[in-house]
Amino acid sequence: MIPFRDYHLSRFSVDQYTRAYEAAPPKPSKWRDERLRILVRLYGTGSIALADTWFVEQRGPDVVLSRTDGSRLVDKRRRIEAANGSRGEARAIIELALMKDWSSINFTGTDDFKRVAMAKAFAAGIPVHARGAHDMALLAQAREDFVRGGNAGLRIDPPV
After folding, report:
1. DSSP string computed for 80-115
2. pLDDT in tens, 45-85
């Protein structure tokens, strides 16, 4: 049995998650299983969401995650660099942060990327350190969007 830290349980009850999984279990995939084994070897835990959509490889001390759409993350152990600042990269950064048991996180990049990433971190329960008044305003906006229900595109959903 591969050990998973499934952060999705933090947003859903175990019964809700189990019913959703049983209703639409993921299709078998040898590639996903191999990526999952790599994640477990590198991090001690895995993420089905990452294994489903990201290619994972180790290059020296760094771990590189990439997708066919040009999205790319480089995990440099103490920081994670995103190539494009897309929503998918923001979601993957949060998943990696959860796998690595980071107690907090901060972001650099464009305002749109920071707002989306902050909202995803907020949804996942990871405290965000904002740098300066401008980032504090972005964090407040992300928190407000989440509370008002404008988080439909930002929430971290369970795999199906």
Report:
1. EEESS--HHHHHHHHHHHHHTT-S-B---S-HHHHH
2. 888 888 888 999 988 899 999 998 889 999 999 999 999 99
